[in-house]
Amino acid sequence: MMPAIISAQYPTMEFDIVIVGGGLVGASLAASLRHSGLALALVESQCSPALPADPELADPELTNWDSRIYAISPGSRRYLEEAGAWDHLATHRVAPVEEMRVFGDADAKLEFSAYEMGVPELACILENRELQHALWQVLRQQDDLTLLHPARCASLNVGKDSAELALQDGRSIRAKLVVGADGRDSWVRNQVGLGTSTPVDYRQHGVVANFTTELPHRGIAYQWFQPDGILALLPLPGNRVSMVWSVSPEKSAELLALTHEELCAKVAAAARHTLGKMQVVTPAAAFPLRLLVLPQISAPRIALIGDAAHNMHPLAGQGVNTGFRDAQQLVKTLLERGGCADCGDAQLLRRYDRKRKEDIYSMQATTYGLKHLFNNDDPILRKLRNLGMDATNRLTPLKKLLVQHALN
After folding, report:
1. What is the C-alpha to C-alpha distance for residues 282 and 257, in angstroms, rounded to an integer?
2. How far is CA 123 from the centre of its chain?
3. In terms of Cα–Cα distance, which of 88, 72, 87, 74 is closest to 120?
4. Which of 131, 163, 298, 360 has CB 3.0 to 4.6 Å from 353, enough for a Cys bridge?
């Protein structure tokens, strides 16, 4: 059943929850609440998510691949399966990660395997566009959800019993709870004063591109910690990989200025020619990296999830997974509210806030520490970090402990 279409002439719309932002995390929250009995609305500024790649194209090597790639943990996969989205994914666009190999800058290495960990896979690699489309397939069939898109927010007023959201087209929404899922520059966060913390600039850009490779990747994700950056090659279906190279803004500009042939040669050399010669599938793009730590991710009638609640370095591939865990915890908190009928109750939202802090802070601290540990020229520190990698690689119980959190 299609959600109702509401025109600007209608009176104020009433909901239990309005979600601002229909990206991966916001859309997953709406899908996960589809049997909650709550009246939901989702406000998204874009017309609709991009359509998936055309499976009928004759040459799959030339099929357009999204440069925004995510490593979805087994825990996030289970969450997406429960939300009903996984069944809508095209399986030929999903690649399992069966091994991960991490290299220091002096031949030190750390290896993880799904077999060694006793799990089917360490993660799944898939495109933002494919997952976005799958989630919206679920949303468009929800009876309890009103989709408002394209729609932009104009003002937000939080009262004792409800919050009122005005849209730029004149429509008005009243809800018990407003969820900010509107990204790193969250409008909701700034409107309610939760955005007073100053982001820490990593002085790095994430340069992304997709390639075909001469040699098969065999389901292995590679990462090289280098003095001037962190290079990751993630397996895509077929002989394809997705690159995330975290480098200085200056080196980012240099990489973007290279021809396709020069870029391939540069990446292949940095990857120690592990996968042989490379060819560009998706041209390089870059985005700035930063750390955002908030003292709280809720306020009366407000909850933040995903990038609206935290920013972290992408070196562990845990940004979107942390966002999905936000959504999972918020769903759990709302469904277990017991006698509290008000889903925007301040004490209820503080419970969500407290449950998420340890996970968010530990992941931010880990990625921050690793980035500064390896992007450091101190010779003593360099020796110690590489010895530590080699020692950890020989201790299977320790490796299992390290990878356990990433599987959630």
Report:
1. 15
2. 13
3. 74
4. 298
Q: For position 358, which CATH number holds? A: 3.50.50.60
Structure tokens at 151: 């729609």
- Report the b/e string of 318-350 with b at 16+ CB within 10 A: bbbbbbbbbbbbbbebbeeeeeeeebbbeebbe
Count structural domains, the chain.
1
Across the chain, mean pLDDT equals: 88
In a domain, 301, yes or no: yes
The model's pTM: 0.90
Q: Is the peptide bond before 249 cis (omega within 30 degrees of 0)?
A: no
pLDDT, one tens digit per residue, over 160-201 is 999 999 999 999 999 999 999 999 999 999 999 997 778 999
Model pLDDT, residue 8: 47
> Nearest Cα to 297, choosing from 364, 342, 352, 365?
352
**Residue 307 is inside which H or E element, if any?**
none
In a domain, 231, yes or no: no
Q: What's the one-letter identity of residue 117?
A: M
Q: How many helices (H) and strands (E) does the chain have?
A: 11, 18
Strands 240-247 and 200-213, by their bridges, are antiparallel
Question: In which band, very low, low, confident or very high, does the pLDDT at 405 lie, cut at 50, 70 and 90?
Answer: low
User: Would you call 278 helix, strand, or coil by DSSP?
Assistant: strand
Q: What is the DSSP letter of 388?
A: H
- Domain span holding position 302: 1-49+62-80+127-199+292-375
Written in H, E and C, the secondary structure of 192-236 is CCCCCCCCEEEEEEEEEEEEEECCCCCCEEEEEEECCEEEEEEEE
